Amino acid sequence: MKPKIIVKNLTKKFGDRIVLRNISFEVMEREIFVLMGGSGSGKSTTIKHIIGLLKPTSGQIIIDGVDITKLSDRELIEFRKRMGYLFQEGALFDSLKVWENVGFYFLENTDMPREEIYKLAQKKLAMVGLKGVEELYPSQLSGGMRKRVSLARAISTNPEIVLYDEPTSGLDPVTSAMIDKLIMDLRESIGVTSIVVTHDLDSAFTIADRIAMIHKGVIYAIGTPEEIRNNPDPVVQQFINRRAEGPITEELFKEMQMEASA
Ligand SMILES: Nc1ncnc2c1ncn2[C@@H]1O[C@H](COP(=O)(O)OP(=O)(O)OP(=O)(O)O)[C@@H](O)[C@H]1O
Ligand SMILES: [Mg+2]
């Protein structure tokens, strides 16, 4: 197997704040790679670099051998066709109907007839367990339904790579399990390479080939679910065992004290 995505020495600063510190990892073709870590650790920032929405302060993002950080805006738009991205916030267009949101790429960039786009949208919606919502507006849906509409949109172009930012947050357990299955099915049926950001430990350990733990902007641990489970590092153990006490909270506490006394 060859690497599909290579993140090489990625550093990102916002102003003088360093959010990602020289992180490196590779995602293999057809792999389901899960990125976990506390709130604010840099997960969304990482995948926004992979889709090219953010430019690194330094470092490279190589996809299929192409360093996408060097592409022009135009080339990047072309390149992005191969990738689906589920935004953490969903990011649906409120003024468009559900089916128009799902078929947005085709409405904007192709001459495909509207009826065909409608049918395609219907099919993608069925894949995420939604029926009969085509003509509704996003504001008429529940949070979990909106999430699934975003997911249907992310897979609308049959992308080779799908980046999921919290695909199961806010969903009930049954729907979450269905989304997990969808992520695995997409790999089987069309060989999708996936990066999944999640806080959902059950989901992570179910779907992942490998899990990377990001903490304070560095990749703290990386390995198979089994390796992560057996990793003795206290930060990793606190995270995967959902403990309130441990190094993560101690650090947070120290930082708060430092800020209060500054
Ligand atoms: N556009 C931006 N400008 C300034 N700071 C930003 C920007 N985007 C993210 N950050 C900061 O970078 C850090 C990492 O943010 P990021 O969204 O990647 O976290 P995350 O790991 O996805 O967290 P969560 O689990 O809460 O979604 C945060 O401290 C955030 O405030
Ligand atoms: Mg995030």
Could you characterize what this model shows?
The protein is α/β, with parallel strands linked by helices. It has two domains: 1-82 and 159-170 and 189-231, Rossmann fold; 92-158, no CATH class. The protein contains eleven helices and ten strands. The strands form two sheets. It has a six-stranded mixed sheet with strand order 6-7-8-3-9-10, sandwiched between helices. The protein has a four-stranded antiparallel sheet with strand order 2-1-4-5, covered by helices on one side. Helix 5 (114-127) packs across helix 6 (143-154). The longest helix has 18 residues, at 173-190. It is globular. It starts with a strand and ends with a helix. Bound molecules: adenosine-5'-triphosphate and magnesium ion. Adenosine-5'-triphosphate (ATP) binds at residues 14, 19, 37, 39-45, 88.
Describe the structure using short key phrases.
262 residues; alpha/beta; Rossmann fold; 2 domains; six-stranded mixed sheet; four-stranded antiparallel sheet; 11 helices; binds adenosine-5'-triphosphate; binds magnesium ion
**Per DSSP, what share of the residues sits in E-state strands of 2 or more residues?**
15-25%
Which secondary-structure class do the elements indicate?
alpha/beta
- What's the total number of strands? 10
Helix content: 40-55%
Mean pLDDT: 90
The string of secondary-structure elements, in order, is: EEEHEEHEHHHHEHEHEEHHH
Which class of the largest domain in CATH terms? Alpha Beta
Largest sheet, strands/sense/barrel: 6 strands, mixed
Shape assignment: globular
Q: Which compounds are bound in this model?
A: adenosine-5'-triphosphate, magnesium ion
Terminal-residue CA separation: 51 Å
- The assigned CATH architecture of the largest domain is 3-Layer(aba) Sandwich
Low-confidence region ranges:
none
Strand order of the largest sheet: 6-7-8-3-9-10
Number of domains: 2
Number of helices: 11
What value does the Rg take, in angstroms?
19 Å
CATH superfamily of the largest domain, please? P-loop containing nucleotide triphosphate hydrolases
CATH topology name of the largest domain? Rossmann fold
Oligomer: single chain
